[in-house]
Structure formats: structure tokens, C-alpha cells
Design a protein that fits this description.
By secondary structure, the protein is mainly α. It has three domains: 15-86, lambda repressor-like DNA-binding domains (434 Repressor (Amino-terminal Domain), Orthogonal Bundle), CATH 1.10.260; 97-133, no CATH class; 147-374, no CATH class. It is 53% helix and 5% strand. The protein has helices at residues 15-25, 30-37, 41-48, 56-66, 70-86, 90-102, 107-112, 122-133, 141-154, 160-178, 187-195, 197-200, 206-216, 254-270, 290-302, 305-312, 321-331, 335-344; strands at 220-223, 234-239, 242-247, 278-281. Strands 1-3-2-4 form a four-stranded mixed β-sheet, sandwiched between helices. Strand 2 (234-239) and strand 3 (242-247) form a beta hairpin. Helix 9 crosses helix 10 (160-178) and helix 14 (254-270) packs across helix 18 (335-344). The protein starts with 14 loop residues before the first helix and ends in a 38-residue tail after the last helix.
Length: 382
């Protein structure tokens, strides 16, 4: 990635500046010096305006006239030409700033989602970026030096670019969470709710009721779509004293919703602490670690995965929807969860996931789904 801060050399003056200084010191005119040096006034004017590099012959003449060395004038000219080459045009400077931003943030996707406004110039974009991160200047050093290494150490699935995009999404999630008001966190209530999670999957308006109870336990929940190239399914972290669970609805299926929520609650109860302040989950990644395995196991227990498999194993060669519904009734879990578990384990085709599934966002109350105009302008540092 490009460096976010670069020290630029102070402006250099070319030989023309110093020649003019010597002319004024002697109270000469340009014509006087041109005559002394034996060159045309036009030629001297080109040198004074830095339009023409010094030749060795001109440098020697200047050395003779002003009683110093040819090397002195050659060095002045070479230093000025080098600085001039390094000096960026306005277009190059804008491109440099944009590249620093775009390497870390999927700006166009953020505009599409309404997280950023469209911009007319680089200043408008920079202002939005600084406001988003709570920066006083366009300096990504904290992101690059502290947060990125933290995320990439946890998972090899992240490279510099999608890790930066994931952290951009996380920053937005933190901003949304900080705007939410809820009750004090009650861990006992959350554990009780977690243990009863499976029953809500088959209750009428079960998702709505579960989210209400989650709120009563002091847990902040909302839906925030993932950003381009992040492939996130959910996240868990704390906002002040309240745990936060975020669902991206990357897969808008009922089984995916319940597994994500069960998985993130496990992280809240077992893994989020000072050493691991946040967890961003991508269930498509084949990579697993101890925390992810524990969260998967806890989610599987709440969704009756073991019981489902044991009950249906004898029928896997010829599995019918009637048998799925029978299993659902016996263990009190939604049929979509049964289908999702079997498809995930390769026991049935993924094509079957359309059965018993509908767009889960239609079952989630709008108060939990984040629209751009509901996002507080108060930015939270991560």
C-alpha cells in the first residue's frame, strides 16, 4: 500500500533565481549580463526563467563572472531539475490521495449504500473520509499499524485490501451501534434466551419475538449489509457496556439468520474481551480456529444439529419433505435449519435450500434494518 504520509522537500530555487540575485546586487540589467557572458538576451532570459538547463560552458561562464565555480552552478541546476521532477502535478496529487483512500475503502460501494455522498472534488471526498473515521487529518496509520495486523493475524483469509474493507464495514457498524439506545446488559437473560433459541425458530413471528427479547437482555442487534469484497456474514463486539450482534444478510435465508445469530451470541458469551475486542465472521472461509470451532459447536447445540443428523441419517438416501417436517416437529426447529445443516454437510444438494426458505429480511422488523438516513453522524473511533 502507498504510504499515507510523505515528507516533501521544501521548494528549491534554480540557478535563475541566484543569477537574478547577482544581477541586482551589481545593479546590472539582463542585457548587461548577456553582453558580459557573450550570449543573447533571449538565451539569458530562458536561463533566468529555468526554461533551459545549464550547459557546462554556461556554468563556466557564470563561475568566471560571479567569481565562484562551475560546479556550484551545475549543482544548483541539477538539484532544481531533480526537485522539479519529483514535484507532482495537481492531477497526480489527487490520484495519490484517491489511491490512499480507495486502497482502504470501497468508496463507490459506500456511495451506492448511502454511507457516503457523491463528491465533486477531492476535498469533499477527504472531508467525508476524515469524518467517517473521526480523523483530524487524512492519516491511516492507526488503521494500518494497529487494526489491520490484528485482523490479519486472526485469519489468513484476509489480505491487505479486503481486511481494510472489512474494517471500514466494522467502523460503520460501530457508528450505528453507538447511536442505539437499549437497556443495561443482562448476561443471565441472554444465556436463558440462548438456551431457548431453537423454540423461537418455529414460533409464529419467532424472529421478531426473539429480537425483542434480545433487546430486553441489553443486546444491540441490527442488519448492516456487507461491503464489496468483504464477504462478511456477521460480527460481534461491544459498544460501551452493551454487546452488539450484526447480521449482514449476505444470504437472506432463514437458516443463515438463525445460525449467524447463534454463532455471534456464542462469541459474546465466550470470546469477546480486551484481547479480542471484535470478531468479523465469514462462514464461507474454510479456515477455522479454536474460537470459531467453539462458536460453531455452541450454535449447533442450540439449533439441534446433532439430533437432526441422528434422526435423519437412516433416511438420507431417500429424504422427503414429510420426513423433514416430522424432524422439525420432534425437535422444535424450523425445517429450513434442517435443510441448511444437511446441505452444509454435503448430505443433500444445496439446491434444496430454497425449500422452506424465504427472504429473511421480510421477517425482520424495519427498526433493526439500517438505512443510510438512520445512521447517526456521530463517528466512533475503533
Amino acid at each position: 500500500m502507498a504510504e499515507t504520509t510523505q515528507i516533501r522537500a521544501a521548494k528549491k530555487f534554480g540557478p535563475g533565481y541566484f543569477i537574478q540575485e547577482q544581477i541586482e546586487l551589481r545593479d546590472w540589467t539582463q542585457e548587461d549580463l548577456a553582453e558580459v557572458m557573450g550570449i543573447t538576451p533571449k538565451h539569458l532570459n530562458m536561463i533566468l526563467r529555468e526554461k533551459q538547463p545549464l550547459t557546462l560552458d554556461i556554468a563556466r561562464l557564470l563561475g568566471e563572472v560571479f567569481n565562484n565555480s562551475a560546479q556550484y552552478w551545475i549543482n544548483l541546476d541539477a538539484g532544481y531539475r531533480l526537485w522539479k521532477e519529483q514535484e507532482k502535478s495537481e492531477k497526480e496529487q489527487i490520484a495519490d490521495i484517491k489511491s490512499i483512500i480507495f486502497e482502504r475503502m470501497p468508496v463507490n460501494d459506500m456511495i451506492r449504500k448511502g454511507w457516503f455522498q457523491d463528491y465533486n472534488n477531492i476535498d469533499e471526498l477527504s472531508d467525508q473520509v476524515m469524518s467517517f473515521w473521526g480523523m483530524k487529518s487524512l492519516d491511516f496509520s492507526r488503521l494500518d499499524n494497529h487494526l489491520l495486523p490484528c485482523l490479519t493475524r486472526k485469519s489468513e483469509a484476509y489480505n491487505q485490501f479486503n481486511a481494510s474493507y472489512a474494517l471500514t464495514w466494522y467502523q460503520m457498524a460501530c457508528t450505528v451501534a453507538s447511536s442505539k439506545r437499549t437497556k443495561a446488559y443482562d448476561q443471565v437473560k441472554l444465556i436463558q434466551l440462548y438456551n431457548d433459541l431453537h423454540s423461537y425458530t418455529v414460533t409464529d413471528a419467532g424472529i421478531e419475538k426473539f429480537l425483542r427479547e434480545l433487546k430486553n437482555a441489553g443486546v444491540i442487534f441490527f442488519v448492516l449489509p456487507h461491503l464489496n469484497k468483504t464477504y462478511l456474514d456477521g460480527a460481534a463486539f461491544f459498544s460501551d457496556e452493551n454487546p452488539v450482534i450484526v447480521y449482514t444478510a449476505r444470504y437472506k435465508r432463514i437458516d443463515n439468520f438463525w445460525f449467524t445469530v447463534a454463532h455471534e451470541i456464542a462469541h459474546i458469551l465466550k470470546h469477546i474481551d480486551d484481547k479480542t475486542p471484535f470478531i468479523l465472521d465469514n462462514f464461507s472461509s474454510a479456515e477455522r480456529n479454536k474460537m470459531e470451532n467453539e462458536a460453531n459447536a455452541m450454535a449447533g447445540e442450540r439449533l439441534r444439529h446433532k439430533e437432526i443428523y441422528e434422526y435423519l441419517e437412516p433416511y438420507l438416501d431417500y429424504l422427503t419433505t414429510a420426513r423433514i417436517e416430522e424432524c422439525s416437529k420432534k425437535y422444535g426447529v424450523h425445517p429450513a435449519i434442517i435443510i441448511g445443516k444437511l446441505a452444509h454437510d454435503g448430505k443433500i444438494s444445496y439446491k434444496n435450500q430454497r425449500l422452506y426458505n424465504e427472504n429473511v429480511l421480510k421477517l425482520i422488523n424495519n427498526e433493526f434494518v439500517i438505512a443510510s438516513d438512520n445512521v447517526s453522524q456521530t463517528k466512533t473511533k475503533i
